[in-house]
Amino acid sequence: MKIRKHILTILLFVTIILLQANSMLLKNKQSVLELNFRNKVTQDSIDISELSGRISLMYRNDEFEVNKESILTKEDGNSIRLKDIAFDTHIFVVRFSEFSCMNCITSEMKKIAQYEQLNKNMLCLATYSQLHDLLINKKIMGLSNPVYNIPFETFKNSMEKKRMPYYFILDKDYQVRHLFVAEPNNHELTNKYLSFIASLFDSNNSITGRL
Known about the structure:
five-stranded mixed β-sheet, two-stranded antiparallel sheet, 2 domains, alpha/beta, single chain, 211 residues, Glutaredoxin
């Protein structure tokens, strides 16, 4: 009788331990799920915030002044005014400087090269203290389009302080549209932007009217 009682006590003890262990496992699993959920919400919030900020930046064009009388230096060293650059109604502008991340510019140029309409309607504006350095870097970037050198004070906007290249559409009235700062860590967003801009130009290299 005593043996049976001891066995029942042991079984009860084991059952209690198993129930407690199971309870702890469930709590740990719930904690992991809650942590994963919070991390997912946090990451989604960051992604949404970045996208929101980028969309806001793309359409914050009222702070951007473009003077058509601005002086540009051609690759041969001669000067030309911005208003004398021939383009139809709009042109895709790529802006970078000697302070920009070189690998980033090279990467961005490779992305742009995939879009024929962008290459046909692209104006590259750089800022280098030495024109010779610009021409060397142009070869490194594998850029075939002409590049014009301009002073830093040509454009008055906050993007000039960034090390990343940025893009925009310049219309016939020299108004800026669809401003975008390249994202080295968000290739998908940059590619979507470039694809959208490329879609604005038709096969005749003119804007389709969706600006």
